[in-house]
Amino acid sequence: MEVLNKNKKAVASRFILLGLILLVLGMTFGLIGSFQYIIPGFAKHILSFEQVRPLHVSSVVFWIISGAIGAMFTYLQEYNNKAIFSTLLLKIQFYLFLSTFTLICISYLMSVFGGREYWEFPPILGIPMLISWVLLIINFFKSLRTLQHQPVYIWMWLTGVIFFLITFLESYLWLSPFFRNYIIKDITIQWKSYGSMVGSWNMLIYGSSLFCLEKISGNKKYGHSKIAFLLYFTGLFNLMFNWGHHIYTLPTHHYVKHISYFVSMTELFIIGRIIYLWKSSLTEAQKYFHILSYRFIVAADIWVFLTLLLAILMSIPGINVYTHGTHITVAHTMGATIGINTFLLLAFGFDILYKGKHHQQYARLPFWILNGSLFIFWISLIIAGILKARWQMDTHQIPFSSMMIQLRPFFILFTISGTALLISISYFVYLIMRNYLSNKK
Amino acid sequence: MNFEKNKIIITIGLFIIFTFYSIILYTSVYKNDQSTNDTNHDGKLIWQKYNCGACHQIYGLGGYLGPDLTNEYAKRSEAFIIAFIKNGNNTMPQFDLTDQELHSLMQFLKLLDSSGSSDPRTFKINTNGSIEQE
Ligand code: HEM
Q1: Domain locations in chain B?
Q2: Which of B44, B50, B63, B49 is nearest to B108 (CA)?
């Protein structure tokens, strides 16, 4: 293995830098999409919603994956105190990743679609993605010596890395007529794969979050503790089996739904633990709150709580019947991908790329604006969702378009808070970038 | 030592169950599931090619700018649907599909409709939180 030096480490952080750019780009597409919600036909002839939505979703998903890779490899090197197996492989992976993303955007701009959530690009572009992931796996395994007595975050990274590959391949099973020819089976497998894929990038990110916390607090005990592994196995169990809540209303096997209902409820254990530890977490939080990355981790903790609460409710089929197909689903998705994933990744961004003292005094206001606007963003989607749920259940339904007009005030609130969100997140991206660039000089 | 061993055992155990579960799902077909033929299969690919799913849902899954179209075929006439696709409206773009493509798409919507109902009003909610379709 090569020795760790600044330049080698920098290759991994490139993924975070790229991710930060994709984040701002992705949010901009999201904002255009929200305008299309409130101004019918907005920019329709330049960039219609069926282009904007995948541009938005792919950009932010690539932010999450790219950021997660960058953080994982940086922390793995810090953990090993050695460079990873091959920086060259990592570089190749980076350029593959970047060029695939560029091609994906071009295909959307040209309205060439594969047309399946969440990878709405033509399936051929899955090939370079796959190759790039295989390179990652080689690098990861070669950098890891043993699994014996490893802390929980190594297990989480390992799980994330393997399950991303499995679920990514699974999401392409539809290319075979054997899977595609039955429409319900096809949808079932599609959401099986995506449900678990989200679980796998969460493993990568939560793993890094534990490493980062360990680094800040200097307490290395937690990573080896029984409770850490208990939570990890609860997570793994859910990654494997809780995806059925996406398709409760699909006429598929009943056992899929029962299993998912049961498994999802094990998450109550996680939420119970959060409540139990509330007070001590708060005291702990005050101690390190001046560190920006820690502050983002604390904010993410609160979003874990809110997201889990909503997710558990939505995992009860009797409630899901109401929420499914409404903006409550979008609230859940964006609440989790912003409040948890993005916040944690920003924490890693500050920890890894930001040198010198954090500008806490400048960051205080933007930090609260960010959290406040995300909360309003989330609530406005939930209210829009509740109103739509009421419409869906109404025996005398008014036309779809009239219902959408009734939701308009909440879409306006969504757009305004989304703008604030975009500006405040961009501010933090700017802080990281500016500091990084000035240190490079 | 024991702790290390238990971790490995739990992981392998979960992985085996996951593999079996996956295989069962890959190989089994639910009783109402509809198999495609050449025409409606093309229709499904046309749905994907134009990314209708970015604005419309099937069984509640998709984008949310437009309505769920799972049972559109039962609700509207073919003529209506075709006219809508050809003309669009202020939000939905107009799509220049060939007659052949439109025919396949209609067959797909028909098949989709016959696979079940996505209407939440058709579900009965049990006291234990589970649901059944009436
Ligand atoms: C870090 C920032 C963000 C992330 C990670 C994110 C993520 C996502 C994801 C994953 C979806 C798919 C939701 C689903 O299918 O359930 C989505 C949809 C969407 N997002 Fe975002 N988002 C972000 C910021 C924004 C912002 C700032 C706006 C607008 C102001 C926005 C507007 C939208 C819109 C309009 C949709 C489409 C809803 C639909 O399906 O009809 N997003 N976003």
Answers
A1: 2-29, 38-120
A2: B44
Report residue A1's pLDDT band, with 50, 70 and 90 as the boundaries: very low
Residue A313: closest C-alpha in chain B = B129
Report how far apart, in Å, the C-alpha atoms of A118 and of each of A24, A56, A94, A336, A424 are: 19, 11, 21, 16, 26
Among candidates A117, A251, A257 on the partner chain, residue whose Cβ is nearest the Cβ of B115: A251
Q: What is the pLDDT of residue A2?
A: 47
Q: Which letter does DSSP use for residue A355 in this model?
A: -
Chain A residue with the nearest C-alpha to that of B39 = A181
| pLDDT tens sequence across A372-429 | 999 999 999 999 999 999 999 999 999 999 999 999 999 999 999 999 999 999 999 9
Check CB contact of B27 with chain A, cutoff 8 Å.
no
Q: Quickly state the pLDDT bin for B2 (edges 50, 70, 90).
A: confident
CB-based contact, B13 to chain A, within 8 Å: no
Q: How far apart are CA A24 and CA A56, in angstroms?
A: 10
HEC profile of A44-101: CCCCCHHHHHHHHHHHHHHHHHHHHHHHHHHHHHHHHCCCCCCHHHHHHHHHHHHHHH
**How many CA atoms within 13 Å lie on the side-chain side of A111?**
13
A266-441 folds as Cytochrome C Oxidase; Chain A (1.20.210)
Task: Look at B65 and A184 and tell me if their CB atoms are within 8 Å.
Answer: no
Distance from CA of A167 to the nearest CA of B (A): 11
Rounded to whole angstroms, what are the CA distances from A145 to A1, A139, B19?
11, 12, 26
Reading the block at residue A402, the tokens are 């009239």
Please say if the pLDDT value at position B69 is more than 50. yes
> pTM to 2 decimals?
0.96
Look at strands B123-125 and B61-62 and give their pairing: unpaired
Q: What is the pLDDT of residue A6?
A: 66
- Residue (of A352, A369, A380, A375) closest to A425 by Cα position: A369
Task: For residue range A232-246, list pLDDT tens digits in order.
Answer: 999 999 999 999 999
Mapped onto helix, strand or coil, the DSSP state of residue B57 is strand
Residues of chain B found within 8 Å of residue A258, distances taken between Cβ atoms: 130
Which of B:84-123 have CB within 8 Å of A?
90-91, 93, 111-112, 115-116, 118-121, 123
3-state secondary structure of B123: strand
Of A73, A57, A218, nearest in space to A139 by CA: A73
Interstrand relation of B131-133 and B123-125 (parallel, antiparallel or unpaired) = antiparallel
Whether domain B38-120 has CATH 3.40.30.10: the reply is no
Q: Answer whether A183 sits within 8 Å of B17, measured CB to CB.
A: no
Answer whether A117's CB lies under 8 Å from A189's CB: no
Residue nearest to atom 41 of ligand 1 (CA): B64
Q: Where are the domains of chain A?
A: 266-441
* Angle in degrees, 0-180, between the axes of helices A292-314 and A343-353, rounded to the nearest 10: 160
When pLDDT is averaged across residues A422-438 and rounded to a whole number, the result is 95
pLDDT one-digit tens code per residue, A195-230? 999 999 999 999 999 999 999 888 888 999 999 999
